[in-house]
């Protein structure tokens, strides 16, 4: 397999001037996956090495399959959800007498409004029966197209 990059024998910038512009890294500071190599021209440089396949995983005896992440998340959230439901139940139990009292008060208000409406309707109906219907006549006169109108109203 040919090299993906062309290797030249040109001297490195720090070798051409005779002094080290870029001092080489000590061997202890070279990161993993990088090695010091000697090029065909004799120059030494750092190069990436080919990654090797990781060693095969040795199965743990009796380990079975690992626990999925979603199962761990659900297991951690279950106590929180349980405590939230318990707190809601306690709150509802404390609020129940008040809710019942408010519902009774609202039903009483609805009954009062209905009774008041029925009473008002019966009073209005009784007052209308006593009064005789009114007879009103109007006489309006005006002179000309834009003349001022005069009128009289007669109640009989």
Walk me through the structure:
The protein is an alpha+beta fold. The chain has helices at residues 13-16, 69-130, and strands at 34-38, 44-48, 136-142, 149-155. The strands form 2 sheets. Strands 1-2 form a two-stranded antiparallel sheet. A two-stranded antiparallel ribbon has the order 3-4. The protein is elongated and about 135 Å long.
Summarize the structure.
This protein is of the alpha+beta class.
Q: What strand order characterises the main sheet?
A: 1-2
Main sheet record = 2 strands, antiparallel
Low-confidence stretches: none
Radius of gyration: 51 Å
Terminal residue distance: 123 Å
Helix vs. strand class: alpha+beta
Mean pLDDT, all residues = 79
Shape estimate? elongated
Using DSSP, what is the number of strands? 4
Strand composition percent: 15-25%
- How would you spell out the order of helices and strands? HEEHEE
Number of helices: 2
Helix content: 40-55%
Question: What are the main properties of this structure?
Answer:
alpha+beta
Question: Secondary structure elements and their pairing?
Answer:
Blueprint: H1 13-16, E1 34-38, E2 44-48, H2 69-130, E3 136-142, E4 149-155
Antiparallel strand pairs: 1-2, 3-4
């Amino acid at each position: 397999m040919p090299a993906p990059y062309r290797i030249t024998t040109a001297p490195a910038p720090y070798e051409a001037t005779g002094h080290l512009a870029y001092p080489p890294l000590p061997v202890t500071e070279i990161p993993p996956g990088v090695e010091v190599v000697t090029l065909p021209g004799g120059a030494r440089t750092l190069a990436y090495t080919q990654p090797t396949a990781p060693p095969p995983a040795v199965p743990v005896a009796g380990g079975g399959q690992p626990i999925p992440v979603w199962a761990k998340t659900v297991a951690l959230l279950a106590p929180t959800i349980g405590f939230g439901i318990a707190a809601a139940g306690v709150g509802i139990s404390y609020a129940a007498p008040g809710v019942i009292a408010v519902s009774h008060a609202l039903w009483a208000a609805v009954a009062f409004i209905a009774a008041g409406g029925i009473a008002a309707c019966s009073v209005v109906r009784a007052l209308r029966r006593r009064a005789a219907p009114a007879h009103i006549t109007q006489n309006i006169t005006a002179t000309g197209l834009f003349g001022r109108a005069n009128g009289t109203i007669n109640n009989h």
